[in-house]
Specification:
By secondary structure, the protein is of the alpha/beta class. Helix content is about 35%, strand content about 15%.
Amino acid sequence: MTTRIDMNCDMGESYGAWTMGNDAAVLQYVSSANIACGFHGGDPATMRKTVAAALKQGVALGAHPSLQDLAGFGRRAMQISPDEAYDIVVYQIGALAGVAASQGARLHHVKAHGALYNMAAKDEHLARAICQAVKDVDATLILYGLAGSRLIEAARDIGLAAASEVFADRSYQDDGSLTPRTRAGAMIEDVDQAVAQVVRMVREGKVRSVGGKDVPVQADTLCIHGDQPNALVFASGIRQALEAAGIEVRTPPPRPQARATSR
């Protein structure tokens, strides 16, 4: 039974004159930050400021690479090859790693964003390309991926540390995938419902699907979406509920690498 979990949040998604989320407030409650790298959100100044704010709160830094889709916020599926996925992930990790280095820090993890994340969760070739990109940039990084997905399998196959991710504000399908945002009921908007789902995933390793099935999940890290209107309410409510249940919130440490293979 898991008695600890990481809380991560997607952040740094503002750019130009557009402000997204309430990063400064949410950072008080999470242990890891997934910082946009400019393809779906974020810009150089936002990246610098978000890294600084996360470091001030002692929050682990993670790159949040995406499909190159500012207009669609990275949530529109696109046809890309594994090589293209590899290249865009290397590029975006490198950008944020440079920003972190300028402030005397290093990255801790990488989590793909939006459509890229969901595509790779089911496509073993995209999953392998993303994981190889992460490893080739920095083999000490942890790959955050949907629990039970191709991303987690690919990471373990190449000897990359992985953290299985679960979601508080998303509903699940019978196969363990997230309900597409285009469907009714995809988002959980009630904090109490979200808290109940999280505590059960951590305590029992199960989540109830929209079809009424108990789906097994490994809950290493929990995602809070920073762009949703109630992000601060969710983050504070879930953090308090976890602590009340005796569940420790902390960043996952690097794990020993398994067998390694070349690209």
